[in-house]
């Protein structure tokens, strides 16, 4: 069996663009992967045209060999765009390998170490406590969720005194705790909007009395010593990693003792192969893995297989999708977990390629926050 072609499809999931890759083979066994759209989105299809020539005619089941080849043919380490493309290729190769063997991918990774995969739902806003109660109860009744993620900001970070925002957040979370079931977990994603680490410490102290599930990415990821200092000063579980690209960056974070939970993205770091290396490094540092996954149904399927086989997995991010018509049978939570599909080879998800023939791309770009003085802030 050998690789004969790549096909790319620019699509969307809800209001975000997504790129899907199909790898075709001489035996008629196809594999699918999903790419992280860092932007510029339309730079990705020609990049796949280039990468195809690096592995054209190769045996797709040699996943490690081919992913190493794609990485090593770069004179300099691939960045966001290159690794996103390699991630999708890696996914598709694993899918082919599983289908060729007649096995789910997690069985090729050593088999499942758990029977199902726990998920949490990203709400991504900071609704009034009563609204948060209603929304989380609805998600619990419909999907069985008992873990959720909110924003810790009740208003614009740059309007008013920082201490007021901190107090409002602490009081608000305390109220949520009062009116929601005691077994519900609430994490908070600060979206790397805080520039000054001492402010991140203050915000952590405000939510600490109400026992947050974890405190995600309060500051930027670039300066690892700041993460080590931050972790030493807070008493809540600290999570980060969606903006880190490879095992070497994660190794720097881990050796600095800069996080309790890491959140690599399987569509960013180079796919399943690199994700497993990163997770193994974390395991050696007593750190758990909660994959970043604001992606589509295909990326979710890939994550489910990784999580099923990874010993130090903690929880997977998943928000139910409203619009992804190309996913025929997406993984959907049952009792707050994704069930495995042991009788389905590859990723265990069917892609309707006919639907992908229809243009359904949507443009999206991150908005840049402006401070009261007109200067820009981290969005």
Describe this structure as you would to a colleague.
GO terms for molecular function: lyase activity; magnesium ion binding. Residues 129-237 form the Mandelate racemase/muconate lactonizing enzyme C-terminal domain. Keywords: Lyase. This is Mandelate racemase/muconate lactonizing enzyme family protein. With 379 residues, this protein is an alpha/beta fold. The protein has two domains: 3-104, Enolase-like, domain 1 (2-Layer Sandwich); 107-343, Enolase-like C-terminal domain (TIM Barrel, Alpha-Beta Barrel). It is 37% helix and 16% strand. It contains twelve helices and 14 strands. It has helices at residues 44-55, 63-72, 80-101, 105-108, 129-143, 162-179, 197-207, 224-233, 247-255, 272-284, 297-309, 353-356, and strands spanning 3-13, 16-25, 31-35, 116-122, 147-150, 185-189, 215-216, 238-240, 261-262, 288-289, 316-317, 337-339, 369-370, 376-377. The strands form three sheets. Strands 4, 5, 6, 7, 8, 9, 10, 11 and 12 form a nine-stranded mixed sheet that branches. Strands 1-2-3 form a three-stranded antiparallel sheet, with helices on both faces. It has a two-stranded antiparallel ribbon with strand order 13-14. Strand 4 (116-122), helix 5 (129-143) and strand 5 form a beta-alpha-beta unit. Helix 9 runs parallel beside helix 10 (272-284). The longest helix is centred in the first third of the chain and has 22 residues, at 80-101. It is globular, with a radius of gyration of 21 Å. It starts with a strand and ends with a strand. The mean pLDDT is 96.
């Amino acid at each position: 069996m050998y690789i004969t072609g790549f096909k790319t499809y620019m699509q969307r999931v809800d209001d975000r663009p997504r790129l899907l890759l199909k790898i075709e083979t001489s035996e008629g066994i196809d594999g699918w992967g999903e790419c992280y759209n860092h932007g510029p989105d339309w730079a990705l299809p020609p990049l796949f045209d280039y990468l195809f020539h690096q592995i054209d005619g190769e045996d797709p089941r040699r996943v490690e060999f081919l992913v190493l080849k794609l990485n090593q043919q770069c004179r300099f380490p691939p960045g966001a765009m290159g690794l996103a493309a390699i991630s999708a290729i890696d996914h598709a190769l694993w899918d082919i390998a599983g289908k060729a063997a007649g096995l789910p991918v997690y069985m090729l990774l050593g088999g499942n170490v758990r029977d199902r995969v726990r998920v949490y739902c990203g709400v991504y806003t900071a609704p009034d406590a009563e609204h948060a109660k209603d929304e989380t109860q609805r998600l619990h009744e419909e999907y069985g969720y008992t873990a959720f993620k909110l924003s810790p900001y009740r208003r614009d970070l740059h309007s008013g005194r920082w201490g007021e925002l901190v107090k409002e957040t602490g009081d608000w979370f305390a109220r949520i705790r009062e009116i929601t079931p005691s077994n519900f977990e609430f994490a908070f994603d600060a979206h790397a909007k805080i520039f000054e680490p001492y402010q991140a410490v203050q915000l952590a102290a405000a939510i600490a009395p109400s026992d947050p599930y974890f405190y995600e990415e309060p500051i930027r990821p670039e300066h690892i010593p700041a993460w080590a200092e931050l972790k030493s000063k807070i008493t809540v579980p600290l999570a980060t990693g969606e903006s880190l690209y490879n095992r070497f960056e994660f190794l720097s974070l881990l050796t600095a003792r800069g996080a309790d939970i890491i959140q690599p993205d399987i569509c960013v770091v180079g796919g399943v192969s690199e994700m497993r290396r990163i997770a193994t490094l974390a395991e050696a540092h007593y750190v758990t893995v909660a994959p970043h996954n604001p992606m589509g149904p295909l990326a979710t399927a890939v994550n489910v297989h990784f999580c099923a086989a990874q010993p130090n997995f903690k929880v997977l991010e998943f928000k139910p999708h409203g619009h992804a018509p190309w996913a025929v049978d997406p993984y959907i939570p049952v009792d707050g977990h994704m069930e495995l599909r042991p009788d389905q080879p590859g990723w265990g998800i069917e892609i309707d390629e006919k639907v992908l023939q229809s243009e359904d791309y949507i443009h999206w770009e991150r908005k840049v926050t402006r401070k009261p003085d007109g200067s820009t802030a981290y969005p």
